[in-house]
Structure formats: structure tokens, C-alpha cells
Write a structure and sequence with these properties.
heterodimer, A: 537 residues, Sodium/glucose cotransporter, two-stranded antiparallel ribbon, 76% helix, B: 139 residues, 4 helices, 58% helix, 3% strand, elongated
């Protein structure tokens, strides 16, 4: 071939490799959705995959539901720019699962059916509690989802520039593609399809990260000493334009206020056990014992992943350098750029496809949790007093909700555009989960005196204070200069307020029916007697 | 007219009469029961009052409460030490520093606690299976 032609052809061929890998992933997930749609019959199949997911499968799915693009690309970027402080996030994301394992998972599985609100409604007055719990679930899911969708638009349009509908920006095209796929998985395939998309994503993410870590260590001839020594003198251009050399293992490059770290830690540690899309995963397994096993599997996978962020996060800092990453797309591109440098175009394409799969699995999980809560808690149990007026109505409403939620988040993400700060939306999701949901769940399982006013106190107080504080925080509406609350994460104030709301509400009222049912709930939660079983077929 | 041989009065295709009594007399199968109908499936108060159940709860509390306090303290020690005592955490240990080693130790702490919990929970499974068998309750 003529040398000039070869040169001209090369960049085109490069930009199509990620698109091809992404299409292969889409094809595989659509086959799964078709297979799931043929198998799914009835509510328990649609909402809980028939409760027939095994421990290791659910462990992978929990990991796939949890590790968002913010984890994979965001933490890699944060470590590449702020060193040690970025790694602090990694720690919190794993330790948070001890709260899930020791306190929440088994009672939830034993006493509930499809949603977090089932456990609250068991003892308390079902209609007010479900209405508020559903509002909290929809708030957490909506904010988290818009954040993921905006992230998806930015990432996919950067990673796969070949994906573009004529007349639309790459950002809008990416948001629409991700949104449509997520709607298809959830509307047609329900929980079973969502679960398998999450399992495949977890496997792809783990193999991508492992290979990336392997290539980093290969770069240092497999010497940990050489690798860690290289981190002690990383040079980049400082704020004043002068080169700065820093030890990247030193804490404090990002967080100047120690309270910020503690507040973030609280939101992670107590918020994970209140995230609705994680909690509903425990209804997909046959019993509490399997729910426990699946948390342990998830902890192994999530722990290994976050330990690997050491290699590809710090590796990006030492091998590429912060200046190079900043010049080639910014923080989120640290991991893909490192893959390109160490493994060439094919590996870059693979990591891009992994990032895409990561986003899809998370947004599908969020969509199904929002639509389950709306259909089961609000529509059937609040509006219709717990009775379907026609068989199969609950599932039909859930499918319609999934479509509406999907369309709504596509629209909002496109209107907000790529410039919006998504960090505060993710922070908000964790803060609401920790301040509103966790106190209500914990007290309804462990405190005999707890009642409806307490649950509503916790949900309203936690939800309200998290939203109010984050709006006036440095990432909120007034910006860093005019902030009325000094911390980016409201957890340190809003979590105690949520617990306080629960306690005050409880002590102000008496509810003998709730106290009478406590014995029954305790027996159920601790023995699994009368728990929802797996379907026969 | 004699009763049909089957106690199930659900309409049957090809039955002698087209008008079959509504409902059926046999109990619903277990998987069709709603939560409200299942409420009296067990002697909740009896189980809760039994010595075995009280021992089970006590054994769970004895493990879960101190372990939860432990992991919360261990976890928050990291941001507190790193945030308020940065000098003591930047001490070099080989090629890394104390701050990194302490952060890394959190992963192994979490796995160790999860392992210990699984071991303890296996005993509770046995205890609760024995308890349910004693009360002739179907799980």
C-alpha cells in the first residue's frame, strides 16, 4: 500500500475498534434480554429473578451494580491527580459492605418481598411509610442515575467518537444509546436480564483491571520497590504554572479539611446499606443464607478491585504523569490512556468497552429499583391498598415506570449537558441513603418501641437535611465562594439528624400495633420462618 | 346428589354441570398464601419466649455488637489519623509509608471480619434449624 494511504487509514481504523467491541457487548446483552424475557413469568420473576440467583452470581451482580464508572474511571483519575487521597475512597467503598453484611442483608431478605419499604411496612402503618420510602428511593435513584447518564455521555463520546447520530452531538448520541439500552434491558428482561448484564460487566471490569495492573507491574519489571519508589517524586505543573514535585503517597493533596474525609467516610459506611438498588439484589436469592454468601462474594470482588486501583491509579500518575492526562481528556481518561500506552489500541478499545458496560449495568440496576419501588410501594400498596385490580398489573406498571424513568433521565441529562457537576449528585445519593433510609431500616428491625412517626421522621429529616445542606455546600448552587455549609459531603450533620428525626418521632407518639408485631418480625428476621421462597420453575 | 369424589371444587372442564361452586375447600398451596394469610403460620410468641431463641439472639448480639463497634472504630481511625496527625502517618516503611499500609490493612480487616461473621453465622443457622424443627414449623 502507498505509505500515505496507510497513514491516512490508521486513525480511522483505530477509532472503529472501540465501536466494534461496544457493539459486541450490546449484542451479547440483547441476547440475554431476549432469553430472560422468554423465561420471566409473574411478579416474583420480574422483580426478583424468581429468587433463584445463586450466591456467587448475586455476589458478582452486587459488585456490578455497585462499581460505577465513577469508581473505575473516577477513582483511577483521582489517584492519578491527588495520589493517596484518591485511594481513601477505595477503602470506604469496601468497608461499607460490613454494615450490609452484619446489620442489613439477612433481616431484609427474611422479612421483605421486593423493596426496602417492605421491611418498614411490616410493623408500621403501610401507606404513609411506603409513600415516603418510595419518595426517598425515587430521589436516590433519580439523582444517581442523572449523574451516571451525564457521565456516560461524556465518557462514551470521548472513548467511542465513531458513535454519532448525524445532527446530534456525540454527547447526546451517547446519552440516548445508553438510555435506550437500559430501558430495553429493564422493560423486557426485568431483574433476570439486569442481573446477567451486571454479572458480565463485573467479569469484564475485573479482567480489564487485572490485565491493566499486570501491565503496570510489568513496566516496573515486577518490582514493588521500583513501583512505589517512583511514586515519591511525581512532577506536574502546579497552580502557578511552575513544575511541582510531590510524594504521591502523602495524604492531604486533595482534602485540606479532615472533617471532609470523616463526613465522606460516614456517607459511604452508612449509605451503602441504604442504597435501594443494592438492597433489592438480596431479594433475588433463595434465602438469607445465600444473601449472606453473596455479600461475602461481593466483598472479595469489590476488595480485589479497589486494591488494584493502587496499580492503575498510581501507575497512571507515575507512567503517564498528571500533565499528560490533563492534556488528553482530563481525570476520567487516566485508566483508558494508561491502557493505550501499555497495551496499544486493542487494549484501549477493550477498556473503553468495559467503561461502557460499567455504566450500563449500573443504570439498569437503578432503573429497576426505581420502577419496582414505584409499582410495588406507591402504585399497588399506597394507591390500591395492596390489591391488584387486574392480575399482572404491578409488573405492567413497573414496565411503564421503567420506560418513563429512562426517558426522563435521557431528557434531563441532555438538558443539563456535559458541563454540569455530577459529583454532587453522587454525594447526594449516598447522603440520602445514609441519613434517611438506614435509620428507618435499623430501628424497624432492632427497636421495639419504633413506630410510623419515627420512620417518617427519619425519612423526611434525612432526605430534607441532605438536600438542603448539599444545595448550600461548596458544590451546590452558590459555588465554593458563597457556600453556607463548608463541607462537600453533608453526612456528618445529616446522618445524626436522620437518626434524631427517627428517635424524636418515635418518642412523641405511641403505636401499640407496631410494638405488638415486633416479636413476630424478630422471629422472622432471625430464623427465616415464613420468608419468601424461590419459585418452583 | 352425592358430593364429587375430589374435594377440590374448582371448575373442571367437561364436568357434568357447568355451574361449579365458587372457591375450593382444600387449603391453598403454601406458595399462594399472602402475607396476611401466612401470619398465623407459626407460634411467634411461643418461639420468641423459648430459651433456644433467646440464646440465639444473645449469641448474635454478643458477636455483632462488638464487631460492629470494632470495624467502625478501625475505619474512622484512618481519616482521623491521616487528617489530624499527618506527621505520624508519613513515616516511611520501606518503599511506602504508614498511611498507605494502614489504608491497605483496612481491606484485610474487612475480609477477616466477613470471614469471622460467616463462621459465627453457620452456628446460628444450625441453632435456628433446630429451633424450627422443635416447633414443627415448616420453613
Amino acid at each position: 500500500m502507498h505509505p500515505l494511504l496507510a497513514q491516512a487509514a490508521a486513525p480511522v481504523a483505530q477509532s472503529y475498534t472501540p465501536l466494534a467491541m461496544f457493539l459486541a457487548f450490546v449484542a451479547a446483552t440483547l441476547v440475554i434480554t431476549w432469553w430472560s424475557a422468554r423465561r420471566s413469568q409473574g411478579a416474583s420473576a420480574y422483580f426478583a429473578a424468581g429468587r433463584r440467583i445463586t450466591g456467587w452470581q448475586n455476589g458478582l451482580a452486587v459488585a456490578g451494580d455497585y462499581m460505577s464508572a465513577a469508581s473505575f474511571l473516577g477513582i483511577a483519575g483521582m489517584i492519578a491527580f491527588s495520589g493517596y487521597d484518591g485511594f481513601m475512597y477505595s477503602v470506604g467503598f469496601l468497608v461499607a459492605y460490613l454494615t450490609v453484611l452484619l446489620i442489613v442483608a439477612e433481616p431484609l431478605r427474611n422479612a421483605g418481598k421486593y423493596t426496602m419499604a417492605d421491611v418498614l411496612a411490616y410493623r408500621l402503618k403501610p401507606r404513609p411509610v411506603r409513600a415516603v420510602a418510595s419518595l426517598s428511593t425515587l430521589t436516590v435513584s433519580a439523582f444517581y442515575m442523572v449523574a451516571q447518564m451525564v457521565g456516560a455521555g461524556i465518557l462514551v463520546s470521548t472513548l467511542i467518537p465513531a458513535l454519532q447520530i448525524p445532527g446530534l452531538t456525540g454527547f447526546a448520541t451517547s446519552v440516548i444509546c445508553v438510555g435506550i439500552l437500559m430501558i430495553v434491558y429493564v422493560v423486557f428482561g426485568g431483574m433476570l436480564a439486569t442481573t446477567w448484564v451486571q454479572i458480565i460487566k463485573a467479569i469484564l471490569l475485573m479482567s480489564g483491571s487485572a490485565f491493566l495492573s499486570f501491565k503496570v507491574m510489568q513496566h516496573y519489571q515486577f518490582s514493588f520497590t521500583a513501583f512505589f519508589d517512583s511514586l515519591s517524586h511525581i512532577t506536574f505543573t502546579g497552580a502557578n504554572g511552575q513544575p511541582v514535585t510531590q510524594d504521591f503517597l502523602t495524604p492531604g493533596l486533595k482534602f485540606k479539611n479532615p472533617l471532609e474525609q470523616i463526613s465522606l467516610g460516614m456517607a459511604l459506611l452508612f449509605g451503602t446499606a441504604g442504597l435501594p438498588h443494592i438492597l433489592i439484589r438480596f431479594y433475588t436469592v433463595p434465602d438469607a443464607k445465600t444473601a449472606r454468601a453473596s455479600v461475602v462474594w461481593a466483598m472479595i470482588i469489590i476488595g480485589l478491585f479497589y486494591i488494584m486501583t493502587t496499580f492503575f491509579g498510581f501507575g497512571a500518575a507515575s507512567i503517564l504523569g498528571p500533565d499528560f492526562i490533563k492534556a488528553h481528556g482530563g481525570t476520567n481518561m487516566a485508566a483508558p490512556l494508561l491502557a493505550q500506552k501499555l497495551g496499544g489500541e486493542i487494549f484501549f478499545a477493550f477498556i473503553s468497552a468495559v467503561a461502557f458496560a460499567t455504566i450500563l449495568a449500573v443504570v439498569a440496576g437503578l432503573t429497576i429499583s426505581a420502577s419496582t419501588s414505584f409499582a410495588h410501594d406507591f402504585y399497588t400498596n399506597v394507591l390500591l391498598h395492596g390489591k391488584e385490580s387486574r392480575p399482572g398489573q404491578e409488573v405492567r406498571v413497573a414496565r411503564i415506570t421503567a420506560f418513563v424513568v429512562g426517558a426522563f433521565s435521557i431528557g434531563i441529562a441532555i438538558i443539563l449537558g456535559p458541563k454540569v457537576n455530577v459529583a454532587f449528585l453522587v454525594g447526594l445519593a449516598f447522603a440520602v441513603a445514609a441519613s434517611a433510609n438506614l435509620p428507618a431500616i435499623v430501628f424497624s428491625v432492632f427497636w421495639r418501641r419504633f413506630n410510623t412517626a419515627g420512620a417518617i421522621g427519619s425519612l423526611v429529616m434525612g432526605l430534607g437535611s441532605s438536600i438542603a445542606l448539599i444545595l448550600v455546600s461548596p458544590v451546590g448552587i452558590f459555588g465554593p465562594k458563597g457556600a453556607l455549609f463548608p463541607l462537600e459531603n453533608p453526612g456528618i450533620v445529616s446522618i445524626p439528624l436522620g437518626f434524631l428525626g427517627a428517635i424524636v418521632g418515635t418518642l412523641l407518639t405511641r403505636e401499640p400495633s407496631s410494638e405488638a408485631l415486633f416479636t413476630e418480625l424478630t422471629v422472622r428476621a432471625n430464623t427465616g420462618l415464613g420468608a419468601e421462597k424461590a419459585s418452583e420453575h | 346428589m352425592s358430593l364429587p369424589e375430589s374435594p377440590d371444587l374448582t371448575p373442571e372442564s367437561g364436568a357434568p354441570t357447568e355451574v361449579a361452586p365458587l372457591g375450593r375447600t382444600t387449603p391453598k398451596p403454601a406458595h399462594e398464601l399472602t402475607a396476611a394469610e401466612d401470619r398465623d403460620a407459626a407460634d411467634w410468641a411461643g418461639i420468641a419466649a423459648s430459651a433456644e431463641f433467646k440464646a440465639l439472639l444473645k449469641s448474635k448480639a454478643r458477636f455483632i455488637v462488638p464487631t460492629t463497634v470494632f470495624f467502625i472504630v478501625y475505619y474512622f481511625a484512618l481519616p482521623v489519623l491521616v487528617g489530624f496527625f499527618p506527621e505520624s502517618m508519613t513515616v516511611r516503611v520501606g518503599s511506602v509509608n504508614l498511611a498507605y499500609l494502614f489504608a491497605l490493612s483496612q481491606f484485610f480487616m474487612a475480609w477477616a471480619v466477613a470471614f469471622a461473621y460467616t463462621r459465627a453465622a453457620a452456628k446460628w443457622d444450625t441453632a435456628s434449624a433446630g429451633l424450627l424443627a422443635k416447633f414443627h414449623a415448616k420453613k
